[in-house]
Every structure is written in C-alpha cells, then in structure tokens.
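Deliverable D2.4 — example input (structure tokens):
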C-alpha cells in the first residue's frame, strides 16, 4: 500500500515538472520570436541623416603669421658720464626723468676755476719753453760761428807745423822753434774740439726743448679739453632717464648721472622658437626681410606700428629654445612708444602657394577631415597641416574640388550619410527671410564696454581670436552669430 502511494506521488511530481518545462519552452520561443521580429523591424527602419555644413576644397595663396611678444629698445642710448671730476655749478631744468632735450643743450656744468688755472699754467709753461728754445737756438748760432773760426785757426796751425817740420829737417830752424809751433797747433786743436762739443751740446739742448715744447702743447690741449668737459651738451635729441644728479654736489670722473635715449631710433627685440625661426630664414640660412606689426596694448585700444626684421642676436639662447631677433620700428607721427614697452608682435611670413585654408573645427589634431563621397556619405582622410592660425588651419594634400565637413562632431563617422548644407542653399534660405548669422549688428557704447570687459577676463581664449574679436567690437559692428556666441558664454559665466 505504501509502495503504491509513493509511486502515485512520484507520477504527480513528474507531471508537474514536465508541465513547467513545456511552459518554459513556450515562453522562451515567444521571446525569441518577438526579438527576431523587433530586429527585423529595426533593420528596415529609415537610416538617420544629419544636416551638416559643407564647403568645397579649393587651392589658395595663404600668408601665415607668427605671433610673439617683444620689448622696445632704442638703438641710440647714451650713458651720461662726466670725463672730469668737480663740483656741480649748474644743472639744466630739463635734466629730469622724462625730460626732452635737443642736440646742443647744456645739461650740466662743473665749477671751471681750477680748470682755467690749469690751462693758464700750461700756457705759461709753453711760453717759458719757447723762450728757452729761442735762447738755445741763439747759443747754437754763436757756437757755430766760434766753431768755424777755430776750424780755420786749426788749419793755419797745421800748415805752419808742416812748414816748420820741413825747415827743422833741413836744419834751418832750431828744435825750440819747432816745439813752439807744435804747442800752438795742439792748443788750436783743443779749442776746435771744445767748440765742436759746444755745438753738439747746443743742438742736444734744442732737441730736448723741442720735445718739451710738444709736451707743453699737449698739456694745453688736455687742459682745454678738461675745461670743455666741465660743460656737458646733449649730442642728439632725446629723453632723459635714470637721473642721478644733485646741484652743488661733487661728482667723480666717469660717474653715471643719467641716460639719454633717442625716441626716434626704436627697435623691438623678440624671441622665436626653433620651428618659428626656420620660417623666417631662406634655404641658405639668411634672414628674410619680413614685415612685422608691433601692437602696443593699452587699456582701451591697440596702437599698431609697422617694421621689418633686421638682424639676429649673436648670442645663442638656451639649446633648443630658439633665437633672439631685432626688428626696426616705423614710428611715423606717433611717438607713443618708449623703451621698455612690451608689444604683441605679428610677423608676416612668405606666401604659401597651392594650399587650402580650413576652419579649425574641420580638422583634428592629427590632420583628419571628412569629405563627401557618393550618395552623400562621409569619408575620413588625412591632410598635411602646415600652420594653425587662430580659427583657421592651413593644409596641403587636400583633394581639390571635393566637399568637406566644416565642423566635426561626435555623431559623424566614416561611411555616414549626411544632408549637406551648402552656401548657395543658405543664400536661398536667407532670401526667404531667414537670418544667416552673418548679419551685422550695431553695438551701443555700453554693449561694447561689456563685451570688452568679458574678453579681458577670458584668459583661456587664444590671443589671435581675442584680437579679432577686439577689432570687431571696437568697430561698433559685429556678426549676429558672433554676438550670440559671446552672450551665450557670458551667460554661462
């Protein structure tokens, strides 16, 4: 009985299990069927198409720019240093910081009394030496006459001695007479030698006095120069700086009293990286005479100055850090620039031929762009990036006459079908009353100030972009799309 009960219970359990298995199979089959139907429906759904701005790739001639910072120097600077020591008697009222002086203006004068005395003593010494020289010349003339007389007497004594010697040999005169003649000859000879030495001594004295006379003349020249140096005159028109002078004080020779700067002979010194430097020299390594623009940044405006690159600093900067260069500055009628001013520099590079200029939004860092192929499908390819200039990229190797995507986005990919928005299509839309975003909006003075203040606070914005926006805002008119973008960013901040 117990066995039958257990068997019956086992059959019931088995039936229930089989029922659950069958039910689970039906559920799984139904789910797979629905998934398959859903996948099939999805497969036949319409492909999503994005509207994208496109433009045609064309060859262009581009003139890229190099941007840098520079400091203004004067090619003509003079440290004002006295060449003599003394007490200051006079200091010009123009000899102050920022004082403007003209060529020939007296800047300061030292006490001249001692220098006048020095010159007077030198002149007296010169006259004394001249007098001594005159006396020596007179003595030489007298000595020459005495020498000539002694020379004649010596010849006569020599002739008499020769005759007496012949007579003595013939026994016609005594030995005493011959000896007397010999003594007379010896005396004449000694007198001749004395007169000869006197002439030589007189000539030596004259030579020494002539040398002394030259020294006296040099002393006078020095005394006159020292006297002249007590008065300092400006050698050129300029501005005074670094003033260190006090009337009545004693100043030392070569002591720096100030600096004279020529404001009309200015140049800008700036640094370029090695890569940038390679773009301002030719294939032979010679510096190109490129145009530059130096912008002086003031609180409310920029003041541009034109110029040209002139030379390279002979000193090499740190290895691999580039070069230091100098460019001339054409001031014109604007005398705002001063040595020590910092300027933003724009260097106009040589033209690049047969290149393509694209918006930076169209190109990735590694040079990838999307072009439009058949059936309006995208194809990604790589171009050669030559320059990045603010919102633009100059490239080579782009397929000319092909259309490209002007602004990449994460939704776009290789092979994706798009709806191209062309410029001519936008023109048609605009003719129907739609705004293109390029319409110009007139800015009020309050709006200009507000926008400029916002730009001043935007530290992360590229300087080239900021400068372009400054120009637009200062002109009083700005594109609608640009204004909208700025106001949006202002709202986010």
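Example output (designed residues):
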């Amino acid at each position: 009985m117990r066995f039958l009960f257990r068997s019956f219970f086992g059959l019931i359990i088995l039936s229930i299990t089989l029922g659950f298995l069958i039910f689970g199979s039906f559920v799984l089959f139904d789910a797979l069927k629905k998934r398959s139907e859903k996948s099939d429906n999805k497969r036949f759904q319409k492909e999503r198409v994005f509207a994208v701005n496109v433009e045609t790739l064309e060859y262009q001639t581009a003139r890229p720019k190099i941007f840098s910072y520079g400091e203004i120097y004067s090619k003509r600077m003079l440290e004002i240093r006295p060449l003599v020591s003394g007490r200051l008697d006079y200091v010009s009222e123009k000899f102050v910081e920022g004082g403007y002086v003209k060529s020939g203006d007296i800047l300061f004068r030292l006490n001249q009394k001692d220098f006048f005395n020095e010159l007077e003593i030198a002149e007296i010494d010169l006259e004394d030496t001249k007098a001594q020289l005159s006396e020596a010349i007179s003595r030489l003339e007298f000595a020459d006459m005495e020498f000539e007389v002694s020379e004649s007497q010596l010849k006569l004594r020599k002739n008499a001695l020769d005759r007496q010697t012949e007579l003595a040999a013939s026994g016609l005169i005594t030995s005493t007479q011959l000896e007397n003649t010999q003594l007379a000859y010896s005396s004449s000879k000694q007198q001749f030698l004395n007169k000869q030495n006197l002439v030589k001594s007189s000539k030596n004295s004259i030579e020494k006095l002539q040398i002394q006379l030259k020294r006296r003349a040099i002393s006078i020249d020095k005394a006159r120069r020292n006297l002249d140096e007590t008065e300092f005159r400006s050698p050129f028109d300029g501005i005074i700086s670094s003033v260190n002078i006090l009337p009545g004080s004693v100043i030392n020779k070569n002591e720096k009293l100030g600096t004279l700067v020529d404001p009309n002979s200015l140049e800008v010194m700036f640094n370029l990286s090695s890569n940038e430097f390679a773009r301002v020299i030719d294939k032979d390594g010679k510096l190109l005479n490129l145009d530059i623009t130096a912008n002086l940044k003031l609180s409310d405006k920029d003041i541009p100055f034109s110029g040209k690159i002139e030379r390279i600093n002979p000193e090499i900067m740190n290895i691999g850090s580039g070069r230091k260069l100098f460019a001339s500055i054409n001031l014109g009628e604007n005398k705002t620039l001063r040595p020590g001013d910092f300027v933003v520099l724009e260097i106009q590079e040589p033209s690049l031929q047969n290149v393509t200029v694209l918006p930076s939004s169209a190109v990735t860092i590694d040079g990838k762009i999307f072009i439009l192929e058949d059936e309006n499908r995208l194809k990604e390819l790589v171009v050669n990036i030559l320059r990045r200039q603010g919102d633009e990229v100059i490239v080579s190797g782009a397929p000319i006459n092909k259309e490209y995507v002007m602004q990449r986005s994460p939704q776009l990919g290789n092979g994706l079908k798009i709806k191209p928005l062309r410029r001519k299509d936008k023109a048609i839309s605009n003719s129907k009353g739609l705004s293109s975003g390029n319409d110009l909006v007139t800015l009020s003075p309050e709006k200009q100030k507000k926008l400029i203040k916002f730009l001043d606070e935007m530290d992360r914005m590229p300087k080239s972009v900021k400068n372009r926006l400054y120009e637009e805002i200062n002109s009083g008119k700005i594109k609608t799309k640009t204004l909208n973008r700025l106001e949006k960013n202002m709202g986010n901040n």
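The helical segments are 2-43, 113-170, 175-229, 274-277, 423-431, 445-457, 463-475, 480-492.
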